[in-house]
Amino acid sequence: xxxxxxxxxxxxxxxxxxxxxxxxxxxxxxxxxxxxxxxxxxxxxxxxxxxxxxxxxxxxxxxxxxxxxxxxxxxxxxxxxxxx
Length: 84
What we know:
The chain has one domain (about 5-80). Strand 2 and strand 3 form a beta hairpin. The chain has one helix at about 5-15, and strands spanning about 15, 30-35, 40-50, 65, 80. Strands 1, 2, 3, 4 and 5 form a five-stranded antiparallel beta sheet that branches. It starts with a helix and ends with a strand. With about 80 residues, the chain is of the alpha+beta class.
């Protein structure tokens, strides 16, 4: 499911932070490639924000991406690489 620009802005404002809850090399608006657990890569995703401190749902899954990855569910920075 791809969110509209309006939905993305509303979600980011309400649920995400511009600062990661723990140090990482990524920042908002970085363009990255996400690689899932099956080794399938999804290039051209944008970092839209980070889970707020204390709201990380799984160990280190706190980076949120745009595109058809589930933007409401954080992913691990270990699964993405900068492309810009």
